[in-house]
Amino acid sequence: MTKKRKTRTVDKSEYRDFLAKADDFASMLDLALAEGKWNSAGLQAVHAVISASDAVIVYYGGVRSVELDHREVVGLLHDIIGEAAATAGRHVSRVIAKKNLVEYEGRSITHAEAREMAEHAKRFLEWVTGMLPRE
Fold first, then answer.
1. If we measure between CA atoms, which residue out of 67, 80, 76, 64 comes closest to residue 9?
2. pLDDT tens-digit profile of 57-110?
3. How many CA atoms within 13 Å lie on the side-chain side of 94?
């Protein structure tokens, strides 16, 4: 049985807005990495995968997650897309797993952690881009 997830109905055309945000965050992710700003890079990775998730879920499902726990988006991806989202969902999970560290804990993330988050975010964005029409 599929879990009842908290969503809000969104016009399918809004996927473009979420994809544009994801692209913006990805650009800033690259800049932060180039400047050695690991915490900023990690935060950009988090925002990129959240916006990219919204883009693909809005396009295929006409809804957007309104869960407080961003990890729930992985389940919603699976609910909407199915097994085709399994690998992509793992990329999202890897980035979201570090969200609390980046945003709320005292310790800064390391260069290696930032690069790992960036790699997962970029792989997810590639998958999303392949799933969506570009105009």
1. 64
2. 999 999 998 766 777 788 889 999 888 888 999 999 999 999 888 988 889 999
3. 18
Among residues 117, 110, 135, 131, the alpha carbon closest in space to that of 54 is found at 131
Rounded distance between C-alpha atoms, residue 128 and residue 55, angstroms: 8
Q: Are strands 7-9 and 63-65 parallel, antiparallel or unpaired?
A: antiparallel
Measuring CA to CA, which residue among 110, 92, 88, 91 is closest to residue 42? 110
Task: Give the tokens for residue 33.
Answer: 């990495």
pLDDT band at 12 (very low <50, low <70, confident <90, very high): very high
Which tokens go with 5? 């997830």
Where in the chain does DSSP place strands (E)? 7-9, 63-65
